[in-house]
Amino acid sequence: MHELIVGGQRSGKSRCAERRAAAWLAAQPTHSAVLLATARAGDDEMRLRIAHHRLERAERVPRLETEEVPFDLEQAVSRHSAPGRLVIVDCLTMWLTNLLMPLEGAPLDDIDWDLTSEAWCDAISAACGPLLLVSNEIGLGVSPLSPQARGFVDRLGRLHQVVAARCSRVTLMVAGIEVPVKRAPR
Fold it and tell me: Which of 4-18, 50-64, 95-109, 135-149 has the lowest mean pLDDT?
């Protein structure tokens, strides 16, 4: 089962994924789970935010491993995916930010982004174990003022569409409440 969990900031997306991980780990003693964290600390506030998330996550789901993967998600998913191993990516929005608005170095151009997006979608389709993908839904507000921000919103929206097409479930989080958007037929 592959699931995309989208919602606004502080909507409960990560907690939803953590609850799914806790249930997965409780279901079988042989199950394992890994969270691929994409955030990078570019300032002190973000460093504190990341440290806080790590601490809380370890308390809520102690058996959930964490690996920091700011760029090469497709390789990490391929490496970790297995039938008895749940892989969580938290989050696609930060991954896209790292690629298109990096803290250092040049952003991906359109051609490199297309290749990266295609490789990412191939990795999702090839994943042989359960996959939870967390992302921010940022396209519900007013159109941003800058061309760069509009381009980011557009790319994230298109990314959500292709990812959702490869997932059997899509869940929208609103105020901590799960709203089913797509469920695989039974």
Answer: 135-149
Instruction: Look up 160 and say whether it is catalytic.
Output: no
* pTM (global) more than 0.70: yes
Catalytic residue (one of 52, 53, 80, 160)? 53
Q: Is the peptide bond before 91 cis (omega within 30 degrees of 0)?
A: yes
20-32, pLDDT tens digit by residue? 999 999 999 999 9
Out of 2.60.450.10, 3.40.50.170, 1.10.10.1800, 3.40.50.300, select the CATH number for domain 21-182: 3.40.50.300
Instruction: Name the residue type at position 94.
Output: M
**What's the one-letter identity of residue 2?**
H
**Helix, strand, coil percentages, rounded to 5, for the chain:** 45, 25, 30
